[in-house]
Amino acid sequence: MARFARLLLIAGCGIILGNSVFARTYYIDYSGGSDKANGTSRTTDWQHLPGMPGCEASCAAASPRPGDKFILRGGVTWPNSSLGWEWIWSGNSSGSIYIGVDESWYAGSSWARPVFNGGGAVIPTWKDGNKAPVFNLFFAITANYVVLDSIEWTGFYEHYTGHYGQDGYIGLHYNSTNLEIKNNYFHGWTHTPYGGTSQDGGLCITGDSSWPSGNANSSIHDNVFDGSDTAGDSMEALHGGPEAIYNNYVNNMSNGFVGEYTLVHDNVVQNINASYNPTMHENGLEINFSGTAYVYNNVFAHVRQGLAIWLAPNQGATHYFYNNLVYDIPLTNVVDLAASLQSCCGNIVSYNNTVECGVDGAPAYVCFGGIASGIAAVKLANNHVITNATAPNKGMWFENGNTPVTESNNIVMSYGTGCTKQGYCSSSEFPFSPKSTSSGTVGKGANLKDQCPKLPGLCNDTTLGVAYHMSSHTVSYPARTPNPRPATGAWDAGAYQFKQPSAPTI
Questions:
Q1: Please, which pLDDT band fits residue 374 given cuts at 50, 70 and 90?
Q2: C-beta neighbour count of 105 within 10 angstroms
Q3: Could you tell me the CA-to-CA distances from 301 to 229, 269, 409 in Å, in that order?
């Protein structure tokens, strides 16, 4: 289960009054800048950002205010000696402080993200604004209204510190609100050998893990968390933090998203592997407790350890799970409908998902499992389930108590029927999609248009999240152009709505 601790960065968030009409732009270039310059042009740029180790002179005297922009030169690397720093300056509702890029300013022959590189070494312990020690953390935000955009984060060395919410790339103070973290690329981490004790795992981003989130009105979107250049046996993409996470790509690491989220959509989470640390708990998505939440248009695939999806609504709340594709999950924990770890327990509604319940090619598990006795009610409608399990409930769901479960218009197929005979296979251009009007999910769903006003995206079929571009390490949305679901007549069951290909033109 997830750890429930707040980030141990205690400094208060400084609110600086100002108006974005007076905003300034500063330029920072580690390779050619000088902190003694004024920082306000590309020829008088600083070497460091305010708050960084080594920041001196004009850089150290700076007092960022709402609407200010801090432009990092593309293609330039800030090394370990510049990391271990805290951003304490706030924007306001009239203007956030922007830390990011201008793609017309770069070193080299073409633009690339600026890079923060730990060099595979521990970040020296530093002190936050209240003089509390911070362990092995690249960067902390203890401020409001901050945008962090288009930075490459690499070279982190995971080293057990014994301090929750640290040991990672970015930490968000539990009272920092109105934050936006977007277009970043996290990769290239390594780790110490397992130390034989219960350890906190390394984190790409960590934030508040209470409910409601202390990181209110914040979002994490369009980021890449990719361990393809690592052993794939460590790091978590996100623990706690903002309630809105969307359009992210997570691949080849030991943990995806763990927190108290209310909006999770259009993400791809795949290749979640066993951690080198046997005390860790691996997850694709784990929502331990939250208010009403919307989880839709995501792809969860190849989750090989722990659990794929865990939904646990608070009492009086509902978790809506729809238009998701879940496949190749060699675990009994495919979609767990669980009791909240706080006040127990709300409702769960699952519409129009496509779920392969087990290892690809031989799925043998029950798909919607572990329905806790405290859950108020579960509704399953229009889902497409592929499993060779036949019991209980045709292999679709099971419960651990007396939760009322309502079923309607769900399609359950064995793998042989689904893939071999009807073409619902992972190898398809769009995995497990229908091929023709005679496919077994087409026209078999109930029309749920009355639910569309309150469920964003429901009246279209799945987007399959985002497409990942390996050369630039960026994502684009959507991965698939969604088809509209009909206003009248039957919908298709599952995440897809079949659309007849257009006739070729002559």
A1: confident
A2: 18
A3: 19, 7, 24
